[in-house]
Every structure is written in C-alpha cells, then in structure tokens.
C-alpha cells in the first residue's frame, strides 16, 4: 500500500503542514496512512478477517523494526521511524486500540477509558510530535492531554453513530449516575438522561483541553501549530454540540467556514 499523501491534508490541521519541510510532511503522510488503514480494518463493514489483518500488521510492524518489511507501506514506515526516532509502540499500541474496537470492549470507569484513549489518540499524538521534533515530558504530556481531549470530543459527537455500530464508550459508572446502562445508549431510549451524561463527558473533555493549553504555552509556536489548530477546531466542535444542549439525532460538525475561522484563530492565538 502506498502512503496516502493527501490524507493528512484532509485532517483538521492540514494547513499547518504547509509550514513543515517535505521530509516531515512525507513522514506524517505515511503515519496517517497507517492509522487510516488500521481504522478501516476495525470500522469498515464486510472487511474479511479483520483480526487476521491486524495480526498481519502487528507482524509487519515488528519486521519494520527488524529491517525486513514486506510491504511498501512497511518500507515507508521504516524510513519515517528511522528518520524521526519513532518507537515501535507508536504503531503497536494503535493496533491494540483497534482490537478493543473489534471486541466491542466497554469501559467501567474513566481510568479504564483512558487506557483506550491512550492507544487510539495519545499514541498518535506522540508519533506526530516525534515527527514535529517535540520530545521528552512535554511531548508525553501534550500527546496525552490533547489526544484525550480530542477523542472524548469524538465520543460525545459520535455517540449515536457508535451506538448504531454496537459500541458504547461512555464509562459505565458515568452512565449509572444518570440511571443509564449501555443498553439505554444503544437504543437511545432516554435522550434527556443521555444528554446529562454527555454534558459531564464534555466537562471532562474541557479539563483535558485546559491541560493541553498549559503544555502548548511552553512549546515553540511552529512546532506546536498542528496541535494548536486541532485543539481549536475540536474544542469549537464541542462548543457547538453543547449549544445544541447535547440532544441531537445526527452528528453535529463544524461547517467549512467555522473550521476556517478556528484555523485562522489558531494561527494567531493560543488555544483558549
């Protein structure tokens, strides 16, 4: 599989990549091609033997770091990993997260949910920061806080879409505070109570954004720009859902104009 060089440009922070040199843009394209492939394996209907395909890519990742990749994507991954010092866990933990989705895993507490958030969002942030040149504790803290913020925003935004696929990510103990069970989410039998649970999850997401803001203020503007853009866009999306009272039938997304407005804001301001 060839790396999809256009995939990162379609992301919420694609415009920020215009500030990067070609080697970093190519490495991001490769990593996001890997992420997209893993996500498609786990999420797309009628994928033949999805667990077998994830097993193949786990083995291929191991071959990548042994210098023996068998696929074009694997060879591209090897080049990116070698150039930017990416560790195997940037790929392997994402596969673990996709396996959790295949298994329909549910999470009793926020701490359990954070196990999943780290694998599908935090580790992606770390890989991105590897390529952007942000290392050490700042990278760890930023990847975790912003990744968790973005993914919990996705959980709120996609609650009905996920339910249609038989998935519930809201922690069971949070649902229980409002007299809900995962089955209530799957069937959307109590939308007013679900709105209350979503509001609490949104507050958790906002706390993650606040943590991300504190770290972003210490990172060089150019290196942190993709993260600033992503934070602004996703937090604006969360605000739009909140304005709707957390009661909605279809996914609430930003318009193209709203995205552009928040991208421009991120170019000249800190995440707020």
Overview of the structural elements:
- This protein is mainly α.
- It has 2 domains: 13-103, no CATH class; 108-272, Farnesyl Diphosphate Synthase (Orthogonal Bundle).
- It is built from 12 helices and no strands.
- It is globular.
- Mean pLDDT is 92; it is low at 1-9.
Distance between the termini: 39 Å
The number of helical segments is 12
Report the uncertain regions: 1-9
Task: Count the E strands.
Answer: 0
Radius of gyration: 18 Å
> At CATH's second level, what is the architecture of the largest domain?
Orthogonal Bundle
Shape: globular
Oligomeric nature of the chains: single chain
Structural class: mainly alpha
* Average residue-wise pLDDT: 92
Largest sheet: none
Spell out the blueprint of helices and strands.
Layout: H1 22-43, H2 50-64, H3 72-84, H4 89-102, H5 110-132, H6 136-157, H7 159-164, H8 172-177, H9 182-187, H10 191-216, H11 221-243, H12 256-268
Helix pairs in contact: 1-3, 1-4, 1-5, 2-3, 2-4, 4-5, 5-6, 6-10, 6-11, 10-11, 11-12
């Amino acid at each position: 599989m060839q790396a999809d060089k256009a995939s990162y440009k379609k992301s919420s922070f694609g415009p920020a990549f215009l500030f990067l040199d070609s080697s970093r843009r190519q490495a991001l394209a490769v990593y996001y091609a890997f992420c997209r492939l893993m996500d498609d394996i786990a999420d797309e209907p009628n994928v033949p033997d999805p667990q077998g395909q994830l097993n193949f890519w786990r083995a291929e990742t191991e071959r990548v770091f042994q210098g023996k990749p068998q696929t074009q994507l694997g060879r591209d991954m090897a080049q990116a990993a070698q150039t930017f010092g990416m560790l195997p866990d940037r790929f392997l933990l994402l596969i673990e997260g996709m396996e959790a989705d295949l298994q329909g895993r549910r999470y009793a507490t926020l701490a359990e949910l954070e196990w999943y958030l780290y694998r599908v969002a935090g580790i992606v942030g770390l890989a991105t920061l590897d390529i952007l040149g942000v290392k050490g504790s700042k990278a760890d803290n930023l990847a975790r806080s912003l990744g968790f913020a973005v993914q919990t925003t996705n959980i709120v935004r996609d609650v009905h879409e996920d339910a249609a696929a038989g998935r519930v990510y809201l922690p069971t103990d949070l649902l229980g505070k409002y007299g809900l069970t995962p089955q209530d989410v799957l069937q959307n039998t109590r939308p007013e109570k679900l709105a209350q649970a979503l509001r609490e999850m949104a507050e958790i997401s906002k706390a993650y954004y606040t943590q991300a803001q504190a770290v972003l203020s210490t990172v060089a503007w150019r290196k942190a720009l993709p993260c600033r853009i992503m934070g602004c866009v996703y937090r604006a999306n969360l605000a739009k859902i909140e304005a709707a009272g957390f009661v909605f039938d279809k996914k609430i997304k930003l318009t193209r104009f709203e995205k552009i407005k928040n991208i421009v804001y991120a170019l000249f301001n800190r995440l707020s």
